[in-house]
Design brief:
Blueprint: H1 9-23, H2 51-55, H3 73-98, E1 107-111, E2 117-122, H4 130-133, H5 137-148, H6 157-164, H7 166-169, E3 175-178, E4 182-186, H8 187-206, E5 220-223, H9 238-263, E6 267-270, H10 277-285, E7 289-292, E8 295-298, E9 300-303, E10 317-320, H11 323-330, E11 335-338, E12 342-348, H12 357-371, E13 377-381, H13 390-398, H14 400-403, E14 407-409, H15 414-422, H16 427-439, E15 457-462, E16 469-471, E17 479-481, H17 485-494, E18 512-517, E19 520-525, E20 529-534, H18 537-540, H19 543-559, E21 568-571, H20 576-585, H21 588-593, H22 615-624, E22 629-632, E23 648-651, H23 654-663, E24 676-677, E25 683-684, H24 686-689, H25 693-703, H26 706-716, H27 721-724, E26 762-770, H28 777-780, H29 791-798, H30 816-821, E27 841-844, E28 849-852, H31 853-862, E29 867-870, H32 883-891, E30 893-898, H33 903-911, E31 915-919, E32 935-939, E33 952-957, E34 962-967, H34 972-980, H35 983-993
Helix pairs in contact: 1-3, 5-6, 8-9, 8-11, 12-13, 19-20, 19-23, 19-25, 20-25, 32-33, 34-35
Length: about 1000
């Protein structure tokens, strides 16, 4: 086990102690020296002997900073004196090790402009290798990390050479290790991560080892943003009312997370009501460059949310990983990754008047999806970069998962530095960031001649060609130009059921459902908008589109237009800064008049936390089989995600969300048809309410101020009364409550020993489910509401939980019993075994019975039968949801055979010991004549040494069919995980051996 001890550990601790009295409570973490952050030098690769001594410095009381543990200065100093001889011995040993660093000759000093030294850094120019000058900037970050962490054990000189020679090695799918500077969590994925850490401590204890080895070694930031639901809307009191309901539902989860922030070192928990994780990361948590005890290095982050990529817009390398991968990274394990290809995306020109960043990102998403960028980095460059604000860049980077890339990277330039100043980073910090990145050839200055960089492939876009658009009705990359929307909608009604079809009979397409809405006559048709939500980090971090939405609302009010009261409208900003500038501009007043009151600070509708529709609206939809629509400024619109009753879901910019709410339908041609009738009795058209680019720019210039960011994030550290009143135990071991329906001890390590389970094939397995293409993690492990007739509902009802208190699957991810029952519980699941019937059921092959998937899986397990899943292309696309791998494993699924996998989900399956297999090109279950009623045997060697990454294996069935698949263990390290039964057992055994 590796722990962090600086070369001046005792002095650092004394500095931290003395700073306590100066800083009082809740200092900004940026201004303090770190005690236990990620290692800046190879010294820290050999430090397990110091673990007990240094960990004793950490306290178990709340803290809002990675830099300081809140212990009495006197008691802290007393402990320092007690262990000082140990520290001195370790320092002597570390000093010797430092001299042995393979790249010690490139360790360079960075001078301060006014004299003195900013710190030291591993210099890429000092390598004097001309290949580095041609490397994409994103690859240079991987290179610097490999050099800094090189110890010829976890990171070898050969790994450094692979990265330097990227132009030749990347096409060969070579494997490299990567150590991120920090880890980012949100509460839906954070709760199971903390549950796993607590459970790993129990496992260490049972195996007779040191439980304190289970502690994050890099900064871990957890932002609680996924729990708030849109229960109360159209009210000045909506924020408070929804937060009170959020705490009522989630008190146990929140208490658990607060316990985690005290029980585990180096973990910062940002309380509910603060903002959306990726916007908080962009505006506050992102460092761009770390300065850890005088060692400078680029910020990098992996997060348990796929949209962690938003930070790429700030020039910070970041991407989503599975929760189990993130846990390993927290515990000091290097991430094993395939050295990616990099797509160079050249931008030129300027967006036309009235075109938004959302229109741009939907266009880019479609282009990259078509190009094929899964598993690759995308790096943006070109003259058009200067025309994009940092917020525009972050919008594009945010949707990397939707276009399939690992990253959508924007190197640091002058626009980045301006944003850092705007968001309250100090001038000294910004100067240090620029100086370091320039010195290490990681800064782009478009005022200077650009050296040509090499990319794996190239794309180009003239920004002037982007036109207003939305995406839907079921996938983010199905872009529809606004001018074609009416025709596209009518095609969707006619088309057969699919991503672009609902198969509504001609005679039923003009159906009108009349109903009474609180005594007021109302009606719905196919395409009627029933949810209009300004939500999601993708857009609420961008002042231009948020203020643009306010201007649309203002113009509509002035012309006499009003959103129909049965449209569920909501505004959920990604941070308190948005509220400040909407109030400053005077536009929140008009948004309120149109029903877009602020409902909370979190993801809300974008992740399915839409809350219930009014009963009268819900009944009108259900009883008349209406294809109702939701329009949201989110990043995901998979069927069944936003709301179970909105089968058509469209992604749009915030101003377009307001426009469609006013129109009340997606079945409209904005160029030719009026949105409504104004107070003068005349038709009001789209052009009458749409603001110009100049109007928006003026609003941004006058309303978005640096002080807003400073005051918001100073307040964030103080929490809120409901959070601060939560009492948590001080124990470092969690006391599991067997009666809890939120937090439950998972079974992953219950029978674990130090003996390896070994590799294994699969024999005579039944097919649990047979899928087509584009099965998302929402299909596999839904985050939304728990259906009243589901196995999860039965479990909760049996334990005295009433339907109104079910909460969501996402909120119960700390309970494996609920989540196993919620696996494949999506009501829109299409399983070929059901011959066209849609829903969360399957056929139990031996008996032919139709059962809930969970019930069928338990029947197989009880009989001692393994199961497999058959699937098409893009299996596991969508959110980086570790429960989409944990759930199938708990159901007894031993392998998934698919045409292709989404990157993170494939990794998650490996992490849980489930075998991912790919059909050969041109083959799938249908072409091979597989029905899912066969039994499957996968001929995988029983010795791990006989398995190679990406090798072919034979699959045979009891019907006599035989076919070849590629086993998708992509690296040697993944084979080690498989041999251990998963990544977490691998980590535990390694820690015990150390």
């Amino acid at each position: 086990m590796y722990i962090t001890v600086s070369s001046s550990a005792s002095s650092s601790l004394l500095r931290a102690a003395s700073s306590y009295s100066r800083t009082r409570l809740f200092p900004s973490f940026r201004n303090l020296s770190p005690i236990n952050t990620t290692s800046p030098s190879p010294v820290n690769h050999h430090r397990s002997l110091a673990s007990a001594a240094v960990r004793s410095f950490h306290c178990s009381v709340p803290r809002w900073s990675h830099r300081l543990d809140w212990r009495s200065p006197l008691s802290l100093r007393a402990q320092i004196r007690t262990v000082n001889p140990v520290i001195e011995r370790l320092e002597r040993k570390f000093a010797t090790m430092a001299a042995e660093h393979p790249f010690k000759t490139v360790l360079t000093s960075l001078p301060k402009p006014g004299g003195g030294e900013c710190g030291k850094f591993y210099s890429l120019p000092a390598l004097n290798d001309p290949r580095i000058d041609k490397l994409p900037y994103s690859i240079r970050i991987l290179l610097e990390s490999a050099i800094r962490n090189c110890d010829n054990f976890q990171v070898k000189k050969e790994d450094v050479e692979k990265i330097i020679d990227w132009e030749n090695t990347s096409p060969k799918q070579v494997e490299i290790p990567f150590k991120p500077a920090r880890v980012l969590l949100q509460d839906f994925t954070g709760v199971p991560a903390v549950v796993d850490l607590a459970c790993m401590r129990d496992a260490m204890n049972k195996l007779g080892s040191d439980t304190s080895k289970i502690n994050p070694l890099v900064p871990v930031d957890l932002v609680i943003d996924h729990s708030v639901q849109v229960d109360v809307t159209r009210s000045e009191n909506a924020v408070q009312a929804n937060m009170e309901l959020e705490f009522q539902r989630n008190k146990e989860r929140f208490s658990f997370l607060k316990w985690g922030s005290t029980a585990f070192h180096n973990m910062l928990v940002v309380p509910p009501g603060s903002g959306i994780v990726h916007q908080v990361n962009l505006e506050y948590l992102g460092r761009v460059v770390f300065n850890t005890d005088g060692m400078l290095y680029p910020d990098s982050v992996v997060g348990t949310d796929s949209h962690t990529t938003m930070i790429d817009g700030l020039g910070v390398a970041g991407w989503g990983v599975g929760g189990i991968e993130a846990e390993a990274a927290m515990l000091g394990q290097p991430m094993s990754m395939v050295l990616p290809g990099v797509v160079g995306f050249k931008l030129s020109g300027k967006l036309r008047n009235g075109v938004t960043a959302t229109d741009l990102v939907l266009t880019v998403t479609q282009m990259l999806r078509k190009h094929g960028v899964v598993g690759k980095f995308v790096e943006f460059y070109g003259d058009g970069m200067g025309e994009l604000s940092l917020a525009d860049r972050a919008t594009i980077a945010n949707m990397s998962p939707e276009y399939g890339a690992t990253m959508g990277f924007f190197p640091v330039d002058h626009v980045t530095l301006q944003y850092l100043k705007l968001t309250g980073r100090s001038d000294e910090t910004v100067e240090m960031v620029e100086s370091y990145l320039r010195a290490n050839k990681m800064f782009v200055d478009y005022n200077e001649p650009q050296q040509e960089r090499v990319y794996s492939s190239y794309l180009a876009l003239n920004l002037a060609e982007v036109e207003p658009c939305i995406s839907g009705p079921k996938r983010p990359h199905d872009r529809v130009p606004l001018k074609e929307m009416k025709a596209d909608w009518n095609s969707c009604l006619n088309n057969k059921v699919g991503f672009k079809g609902f198969a509504v009979p001609k005679e039923a397409q003009d159906k009108v459902a009349k109903f009474s809405f609180h005594g007021q006559p109302a009606e719905l048709k196919h395409g009627s908008v029933v949810i209009a939500a300004i939500t999601s980090c993708t857009n609420t971090s961008n002042p231009s589109v948020m203020l643009g939405a306010g201007l649309v609302a203002k113009k509509a009010c002035e012309l006499g237009l009003q959103v129909k009261p049965w449209v569920k409208t909501s505004l959920a900003p990604g941070s308190g800064v948005v509220t400040k500038y909407l109030l400053q501009s005077g536009l929140q007043e008009y948004l309120n008049k149109q029903g877009f009151h602020i409902v909370g600070y979190g993801c809300t509708t974008c992740i399915g936390n839409s809350g219930d529709l009014d009963e009268s609206v819900a009944s009108a939809i259900s009883e008349n089989d209406i294809i109702a629509s939701a329009v949201l400024s989110g990043n995901r619109n998979f069927e069944g995600r936003v709301h179970s009753l909105t089968r058509a879901n469209y992604l749009a910019s915030p101003p377009l969300v307001v426009a469609y709410a006013l129109a009340g339908t997606v079945d409209i041609d904005f160029d030719k048809e009026p949105i409504g009738t104004g107070k003068d009795g005349k038709g009001v058209y789209f052009k009458d309410i749409w603001p110009s680019t100049e109007e928006i720019a003026e609003a941004v210039q006058s309303s978005v101020l640096p002080e807003m960011f400073k005051s918001t994030y100073e307040a964030i550290t103080k929490g809120n009364p409901m959070w601060n009143q939560l009492a948590v135990p001080s124990s470092t071991m969690y006391s599991w409550d067997p009666n809890s329906t939120y937090i439950h001890e998972p079974p992953y390590f219950k029978n674990m020993t130090m003996d390896l389970p070994g590799a294994h094939g699969v024999k005579d397995a039944y097919c649990l489910l047979n899928f087509g293409d584009s099965i998302t993690t929402d299909h596999i492990s839904p985050a939304g509401s728990i259906h009243k007739d589901s196995p999860a509902a039965k479990y909760l009802l049996d334990r005295g939980v009433e339907c109104k208190d079910f909460n969501s699957y996402g909120s119960r991810r700390g309970n494996d019993e609920v989540m196993a029952r919620g696996t494949f519980a999506n009501i829109r699941l299409v399983n070929k075994l059901l011959n066209g019937e849609v829903g969360p059921k399957t056929i139990h092959v031996p008996t032919g019975e139709k059962l809930y998937v969970f019930d069928a899986a338990m029947r197989y397990k009880d009989a001692g039968h393994d199961t497999v899943v058959l699937a098409g292309a893009e299996y596991g696309s969508g959110s980086s949801r570790d429960w989409a791998a944990k759930g199938p494993m708990l159901l007894g699924v031993k392998a998934v055979i698919a045409k292709s996998f989404e990157r993170i989900h494939r990794s998650n399956l490996v992490g849980m010991g489930v075998i991912p297999l790919c059909f050969k090109s041109g083959e799938d279950a249908d072409t091979l004549g597989l029905t899912g009623h066969e039994r499957y045997t996968i001929d995988l060697p029983s010795k791990i040494s006989d398995i190679r990454p990406g090798q072919d294996v034979t699959v045979t069935t009891d019907s006599g069919k035989s076919f070849t698949c590629t086993v998708r263990f992509d690296t040697e390290v993944e084979l080690f995980y498989f041999n251990n039964g998963g990544i977490l057992p691998y980590v535990i055994r390694n820690l015990i051996k150390q």
